[in-house]
Structures are given as C-alpha cells and as structure tokens.
Amino acid sequence: MKGWAVRLILAAVVVALGIWAWKAFFPGPEKAIQKNLAQFAKAVSFSSSEGNLTRVADSQKAVSLCTTNVEISVDATGYPPQSLSGGAELFQALMLARSRLGSLEVVFLDLSISLAPNKESAVVGLTARGRSAAERDMQVMELKFTMRKVGNQWLIRKIETVKTLSY
Amino acid sequence: MEAEMETERPSWLRTILIGRRPERTLVRIAILVVTCFVFFRFVFLPIRVEGASMAPTYKDRRVNFVNRLAYLFHEPQRGDVVAIRLSGISVMYMKRIIGLPGETIAFHDGRVYINGQPLAEPYVKFPSSWEHEAQRLGPTEYYFVGDNRSMPQADHTQGKADQERIVGKVLL
C-alpha cells in the first residue's frame, strides 16, 4: 500500500477515536437521558434471588433517578389504573412490587427523545416491556417520560401511559 | 519449464470457503447482506407472536412476517390482520381490523356491530359476552381487536388507533 493511503487511514482512525472520546467524556443530553432511563429500568427490575439489602438499595436508586415531586400514572391492560406522586410513594410501590412479584425484568425500547428549546427538559416516548414470574405473558406498554435537568443530572419528573389503542 | 509456467491452483478447501476469486466473493457477500437487511427491514419484517390474544388463528411463539408494502396502493381492509407499532417497531401489537374510518363500533353480547349491523366474524371461534357502547371512529381511525374473545374483556388489548400506527399486513 502506498504511504499516502496508510496516512489517510491513520488520520481517519485518529478522527474516529477523537469523536468517540469526545462523546464518551462529554455526552450530549440525549445520551445522558438514555443512560438515566437504562439505570431506572435496571433499578426497577429484580430477580427472585434478590436479598433484602439489594431490594432496598435498588428501590432507593430508582427513586434517586427521579425528581422529589415525581408523578407516575400507569394504566396497564388488565389492571386498575395506578397513580402515585413523590419519592416516598414510589419507594413504597417498588418495595411492594418486589414483595408481590417473584421477579421482574423491565426493558425500555424504541426511545424517541424530544428536547425542549431551552434544553432544560425533555419528553421521551418509549415502549416498556416487562416480564414477571407472576405472569405467563409479557406486559407491553407505551410510556411518555417527562425529564428535567437538575444540576448536571437528567431526572424523571413524570411517567404517563400512552394509550396506543384507545378503548 | 512447463512446471514453472503452470499457475498455482487454490486448494479445494479455500475454493469452498471463499471461492476462486475472493474479491468477487466479498462483493457477493456484501450485496447479499445489504439485500437481506433492506428486504427484512423494509419489506417483510420478521416477527414472533407472543400471547394468546389472536388465538386460535395465530398461536403463541409462531414466527411470521409483516408486509410493510401491503398498503402502498390501497387502504387497509376490514378483516386484515395487521401489526400496530407502539413507540417503534421492536414490539408491536398484532390485531385484526374490524372497524373502518367513520364507522360506529359496538359490542353487544360478544357480537360486533358496525353502524348498528352485526358483523360476521368466522375467525372468532370462542364465544364471549363482551359489551361496549357504540363509539364513532375518526376520519383516519381504525378499530383493532384480537380473535380470542374468550379472555376477559379487560385483559384484552383492543381499541382505535390512527392509520399511521399500522406498520403493515401480517403475511401468513
């Protein structure tokens, strides 16, 4: 291979590495929101072998990813609508879910993030897929998350169900 | 002298694995990968059925495809089984269209009524006692429901949605 071609490939590799490093050290708001939501999904998920300390720690972790005045209203098929507000209520609900369901695996899919012009809030549309030991079929739900920037962190301010099929 | 003139022939293993001309094999593989990606992403989207809401027409865990070009030249029809997107296409609802834009839909004693007339539904094999008051669909709205009416009405995801949510028609 000629010398100029090698130099060109090396330059391309250096540029690609630079872009990757920039994005890794200075993530954009979308990346930070994605990371927060992935952490939230992980914190609300649990296995049947989870210990008491992990149970409390993960529930607290989920609460810490929300604003103190978080509002959640979920309307899942086959269940009565549920609403709660504030970190304390969320913590109680998570602990109750952990004691009632054997296990739960929550995954957020197909995220679409719309940032407000001032970049201080954002609306995220996503599909939540949940599998629990208590149910044979998976639960699927379309959700709308309202995110707020508090300091350097993006926190969940509101979670609402989007009725894909309105009845 | 003759031995020197003879070109070296590739081994049979190499011929099987990468062909006589590796460059051409590479191009063929690239074309095949791109074609498969486009075909299975934008034409026939592979899906796996989960749940019993379309039983007995579609059984749980069965693999199928969604024809994304089905409604390129005509509107969705009553009776079509379609895939309905949520926030994306990673997970979709699979339902049957029973109501068309502008129509009034009602359930009475398990039967569907369209504009006050009972709808013949040969695909419904399990009887039900579903009840729902009449509701009118908007100019771009369709009504979707599964074939399994034996399950409790509250546990069955059904309802109206805009046409733009239809990803395509289920192929098989």
Condensed summary:
The complex is a heterodimer of chains A (167) and B (172). In chain A, 40% of the residues lie in helices and 35% in strands. With 167 residues, chain A is an alpha+beta fold.
Question: Can you characterise this structure?
Answer:
The complex is a heterodimer of chains A (167) and B (172). By secondary structure, chain A is α+β, with helices and mostly antiparallel strands. Chain A has one domain (26-162): Roll (Nuclear Transport Factor 2, Chain: A), CATH 3.10.450. Chain A has helices at 3-25, 29-44, 52-64, 87-100, and strands at 66-74, 82-85, 104-115, 121-132, 139-150, 153-162. In chain A, strands 2-1-6-5-4-3 form a six-stranded mixed beta sheet. In chain A, helix 2 (29-44) runs antiparallel to helix 3 and helix 3 (52-64) packs antiparallel against helix 4 (87-100). The relative contact order of chain A is 0.15. With 172 residues, chain B is an alpha+beta fold. Chain B has two domains: 2-40, no CATH class; 49-170, Umud Fragment, subunit A, CATH 2.10.109. Chain B contains three helices and eleven strands. Chain B has helices at residues 2-5, 12-18, 22-43, and strands at 44-48, 63-67, 81-85, 92-99, 104-108, 111-114, 117-118, 132-136, 141-145, 159-162, 166-170. In chain B, the strands form two sheets. Chain B has a seven-stranded antiparallel beta sheet. Chains A and B meet through strand 3, strand 4 and strand 5 of A and strand 10 of B.
